[in-house]
Amino acid sequence: MTPRIEVVAIDSLMVRLFDAIDEANMPWILAASQRLREAFGQQLIDLVPSYTTLLVQFDLAPGEARQRIQHALQGLQPDAGSGGRRHQIPVWYHPSVGPELPLLAARSGLSEDEVIALHGSRDYPVFALGFAPGFGFMGLVDERLATPRLSTPRKRVAAGSVGIAERQTAAYPAVSPGGWNLIGRTPLRLFERGHSLLQPGDRVRFVAVGHAEFINLGGDDSPLEAQA
After folding, report:
1. Do 59 and 110 share a domain, yes or no?
2. What is this enzyme's class at the first EC digit (predicted)?
3. Given 14, 40, 72, which residue is the final one in a domain?
């Protein structure tokens, strides 16, 4: 692998490690992130890891920044012992809060219970944060669950809504517009007081819970239509 360095702005460079999204990218992205943080130290303004790249914003001459990046990534290897945290996110899967659950079942030829089991059958790496504070893009879901975004996004999606778009999955950290296919809702607060529960490189397992447990955990079971 040969990282490519691309100019983004006078104080920012993009380090491109890969060309395609793959779960196997994340250990490399995390290893590169750690090396770059060490290489830039206090002259690092921001470092934003994503699916295939790292955006490096710095407070020094661009030429020196490029040299630091090249030097830091020489002989890069993923650290098998490194990685983010593992989270279990409880989800109440139900059509009243996840109106596309029956649609995904019909489209995939599975029952709703099979869709739920399949969605919660594995850990998902967090590829990137974006769209809204604390919104973690995760994947990749089983191909049988892959489905396009809604042709017309909703004007209001409830906080905690869990959805699927193509082969990615996510949970909305706050009330916002959105076009993902909703299949349930989590009671967890994903973004509070400027802190995101999820970070790139973390791994997430969605765990199905019943309605009573969802309420006991502080969940809001208001039907989506009532919040539109």
Report:
1. no
2. hydrolase
3. 72
